[in-house]
């Protein structure tokens, strides 16, 4: 019995690189690592994503995290802090000065601490789903987009195809 019964018929220069799974991509992004290789760092500064991974070359500049990370951080921190404040207020005799000083500081610290990991996780999510420019992986053949079809070598090799 042979294992080479499924021939796609496509010309292959080499094996296509495999895309990392959803959960692992998100986890790697949460830890600030490249979702593709898990080695390179994706953040150059606090919330500034590097244009590409320095290890595997995955292009990161086309991520569209936008406002999703702050929304997620607000959702997490508000539920966490709000719940604990209510629990402490109901169950313990906590002085007002503590409530007014500790919780704003804790909220700020939690929000700042979660912003980068959550943004990394969102980038990992977009990579795993192949969104935006993440459809092309490093080492794979570039997908011929509409611009390439229109302005590619076929239109410039003197055949007159694609000329205006
Ligand atoms: Zn990488």
TrEMBL record:
<feature type="region of interest" description="Disordered">
    <location>
        <begin position="141"/>
        <end position="164"/>
    </location>
</feature>
<keyword id="KW-1133">Transmembrane helix</keyword>
<protein>
    <recommendedName>
        <fullName>DUF983 domain-containing protein</fullName>
    </recommendedName>
</protein>
<dbReference type="Pfam" id="PF06170">
    <property type="entry name" value="DUF983"/>
</dbReference>
<feature type="compositionally biased region" description="Gly residues">
    <location>
        <begin position="155"/>
        <end position="164"/>
    </location>
</feature>
<keyword id="KW-0472">Membrane</keyword>
<feature type="transmembrane region" description="Helical">
    <location>
        <begin position="97"/>
        <end position="115"/>
    </location>
</feature>
<feature type="transmembrane region" description="Helical">
    <location>
        <begin position="68"/>
        <end position="85"/>
    </location>
</feature>
<dbReference type="InterPro" id="IPR009325">
    <property type="entry name" value="DUF983"/>
</dbReference>
<keyword id="KW-0812">Transmembrane</keyword>
């Amino acid at each position: 019995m042979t294992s080479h019964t499924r021939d796609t018929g496509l010309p292959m220069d080499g094996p296509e690189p495999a895309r990392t799974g959803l959960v692992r991509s998100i986890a790697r992004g949460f830890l600030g690592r490249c979702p593709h290789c898990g080695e390179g760092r994706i953040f150059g500064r606090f919330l500034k994503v590097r244009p590409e991974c320095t290890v595997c070359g995955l292009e990161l500049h086309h991520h569209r995290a936008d406002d999703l990370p702050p929304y997620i951080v607000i959702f997490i921190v508000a539920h966490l802090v709000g719940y604990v404040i209510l629990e402490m207020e109901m169950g313990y005799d906590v002085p007002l000065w503590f409530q007014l000083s500790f919780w704003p500081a804790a909220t700020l610290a939690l929000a700042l601490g979660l912003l980068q990991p959550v943004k990394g996780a969102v980038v990992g999510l977009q990579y795993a789903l192949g969104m935006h420019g993440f459809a092309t992986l490093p080492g794979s053949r570039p997908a011929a987009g509409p611009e390439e079809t229109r302005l590619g070598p076929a239109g410039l090799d003197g055949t007159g195809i694609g000329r205006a």
